[in-house]
Amino acid sequence: MKIAFVTDTGTGHDPDYWKERGIYCLPLQIEYNGNSYDEYVTIPYAKVIENLHEQVLMKTSLPKPGLMEDLFEDLKKEGYDAVFCVPICKGLSSTYDTLEMMAKEADLQFYGVDCYVTAVVQGRMIEIAKEMIESGHTIEETIARLERIAQSCETILLCDDLQHMKRGGRLTPTAAVLGGLLKIKPVLYLDKKTKGRVDVLAKVRTMSKAQDRVIEFIKEKGVLSDFTFIVAHVNVLDAAVDYAQKIQKSFDGAKVKIIDLVSAVGIHTGLGCLALQVFNENA
């Protein structure tokens, strides 16, 4: 069976990056001022940051249905029998369900795994899927491994801009105003337990206490120093470096990579957001 591997730009990488690795990538959509743009293709990350500074309200949506349809029709013509997909999670987007529907319409067998989030773990999961299947592992073995990785993943967001989240509909106006007045820092998270939907883990008064709560939380979840640690930020590199150092001191031997928070998430969290993603890719 000839299998094509498919993901999207929720991984933080553009289609050309994935093409070099033998993986197909569909760009998510970023919408503002009445126009729609392909993430990392027709709207670079720098423009997203510029829009955030200018308080331009942006929205995200699934890849253009026409692009998905064209991709699967082309794959069918090229002799592919199936697609293996790891898209942005169901809790954040309808991409997964749309890919499954369109694969069936193109008469392609569909295999997919919900990563329950997006970003780095999504990218590693599609890479591991390709590596495993091409080295002779079965579909069932591959899906089981990816599900264990997804189960191990925790993603925690520390948002600094409550007003931005209010404008984007992520908080009620009352909650945003109270949060601003009381200087509350909401600790938000998503994982398999939340089914990929953003939930509140804690509400604290300072960013330092918020970071302490995150470290406490992931220790409670059994995270070890050999996990993959990613600190992502929205235009606050110095704060991200400090946060990464704090995590490293709490997990002896841990290696923390610092990246820009993927635009599909940063658009909703706003400037100043710090995110931690941890997972066990050897699960």
List its traits:
single chain; 283 residues; alpha/beta; six-stranded mixed beta sheet; four-stranded parallel beta sheet; 11 helices; 42% helix; 22% strand; globular
What strand line-up does the widest sheet have? 10-9-8-13-11-12
Total count of helical runs of at least 4 residues: 11
- Give the terminus-to-terminus CA distance: 26 Å
H/E series: EHEEEHEHEHEHHEHHEEHEHEHE
The 3D shape can be described as globular
Sheet of most strands: 6 strands, mixed
Mean pLDDT: 93
Strand content: 15-25%
For the CA atoms, what is the radius of gyration? Answer: 19 Å
Helix content: 40-55%
Uncertain segments: none
Describe the structure concisely for a colleague.
By secondary structure, this protein is α/β, with parallel strands linked by helices.
Describe this structure in words.
With 283 residues, this protein is α/β, with parallel strands linked by helices. Helices cover 42% and strands 22% of the residues. It is built from 11 helices and 13 strands. The chain has helices spanning 15-19, 45-53, 65-77, 95-105, 120-134, 139-152, 162-167, 173-182, 207-220, 237-250, 263-269; strands at 3-8, 24-26, 29-32, 35-38, 59-61, 82-85, 109-112, 154-158, 185-190, 199-204, 228-233, 256-260, 274-279. The strands form 3 sheets. Strands 10-9-8-13-11-12 form a 6-stranded mixed β-sheet, sandwiched between helices. Strands 2-1-6-7 form a 4-stranded parallel β-sheet, sandwiched between helices. The chain has a 3-stranded antiparallel β-sheet with strand order 4-3-5, with helices on one face. β1 (3-8), α1 and β2 form a beta-alpha-beta unit. α5 runs antiparallel to α6. The longest helix is centred in the middle third of the chain and has 15 residues, at 120-134. It is globular and about 60 Å long. It starts with a strand and ends with a strand.
